[in-house]
């Protein structure tokens, strides 16, 4: 299944877990999709390898100037700092909500669901995440499951970097339509 002609937004900022950004992006690009790094700032973002700083990545577009209508799908990588910063940014939250409201596919991993919680789009949904988000997800009106990858309609979720191979396979299949 190819992603030829598909534009996939990766929303991230400083503190993103490197593997959760790089590996899904590589999977999207290998499947023929165009990946764009959207962030709350211009320039570069600092990725993390768990608690240690890793590489930096060039931002393609600031979220304030991005439109969900220009993309076919969204990926929300984790890392603890990344989604915590994103959920405090009105433009980032609105961008995520626009994808959810349009029913476009959203792939989310680890701590990434914090932005979905903030966007108020989890009522009645089922997803997985890093275990520490369980209470936040349940309080947002969703059911939490402990699974390698869980698909609920347009929402594809995984728990942690160990789930990336299954996550990548599933997002590519779902993004291909």
TrEMBL record:
Similarity remark: Belongs to the peptidase C56 family.
Name recorded for this polypeptide: Glutamine amidotransferase
Coiled coil: none
UniProt domain DJ-1/PfpI: residue ranges: 6-173
Keywords attached to this entry: Glutamine amidotransferase
Top-level taxon in the UniProt lineage: Bacteria
């Amino acid at each position: 299944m190819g992603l030829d002609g598909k534009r996939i937004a990766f929303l991230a900022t400083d503190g993103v877990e490197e593997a959760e950004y790089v590996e899904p992006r590589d999977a999207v690009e290998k499947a023929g999709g165009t990946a764009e790094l959207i962030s709350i700032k211009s320039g570069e973002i600092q990725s993390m390898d768990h608690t240690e700083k890793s590489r930096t990545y060039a931002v393609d577009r600031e979220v304030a100037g991005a439109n969900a209508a220009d993309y076919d799908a969204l990926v929300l990588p984790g890392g603890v700092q990344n989604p915590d910063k994103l959920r405090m940014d009105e433009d980032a939250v609105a961008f995520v909500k626009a994808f959810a409201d349009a029913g476009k596919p959203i792939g989310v991993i680890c701590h990434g669901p914090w932005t979905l919680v903030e966007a108020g789009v989890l009522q009645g949904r089922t997803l997985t995440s890093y275990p520490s988000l369980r209470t936040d997800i349940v309080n947002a009106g969703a059911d939490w499951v402990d699974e390698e990858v869980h698909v609920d309609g347009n929402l594809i979720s995984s728990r942690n970097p160990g789930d990336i191979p299954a996550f990548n396979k599933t997002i590519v299949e779902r993004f291909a339509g």
